[in-house]
Amino acid sequence: MKDTFSQAELEIINNIISSKQLKTLLTSFEDLSGYTKDEIWSIVDGLGDLIGYDPVKDDIDSLGLQADTMIEKLIRLLIRRGEFD
What we know:
By secondary structure, the protein is mainly α. It is built from 3 helices and 2 strands. The protein has a two-stranded antiparallel sheet. The chain is globular, with a radius of gyration of 13 Å. The model has no long low-confidence stretch (mean pLDDT 93).
């Protein structure tokens, strides 16, 4: 299964990339091939900061669910590259 990012996911990740002053913004999931392991972990860290709590659902909020999905995709990428440790 090939991972991709939706346009909304790309916007969220690009906001993190901009705030952390990493490399160029992403236009697709494949653009991550130019990112190092540490840069990808920096994006994962930024996504983790987006996870909040929804007291009505007694679960993580909707942005957190979206961030969690993106984190999973990034970890799968690191695993495929042999860089997950």
